[in-house]
Amino acid sequence: MTREDCPCGTGLPYGECCGPLHLGDAPTTALALMRSRFSAFALGLERYLLDSWDPSTRPETVDLDGDVEWRRLQIVDTALGGDSDDAGVVEYRASFRHDGRSGLLQERSRFVRVEGRWKYVDGDVRP
Fold it and tell me: Which residues form the YchJ-like middle NTF2-like domain (predicted)?
């Protein structure tokens, strides 16, 4: 990955991938929102994370740990979440480093379309 590559791992430059979403463009799929949220975690974009959360489940704040380095996103599975859907599921694995140790987070995330925009609802963390 070069410095210009998007953190979400598509191989596209950030400015052609998650960057426009972080600046206000609407993701067209649940998967695109998932990728942009991973990049937001990697870049410390707390406001984007809150704005992309469904209002019914959104917390008051998101406190990101600056010592966590989000390193890689792997998409495991998707269900619905396309251009013409109102709900979708994305299962992913996210690799990270914290305090010199590697870790892996796997979650099956739920998304809904609210007023035409995809939003993260919640997820089930997998062991």
Answer: 29-123
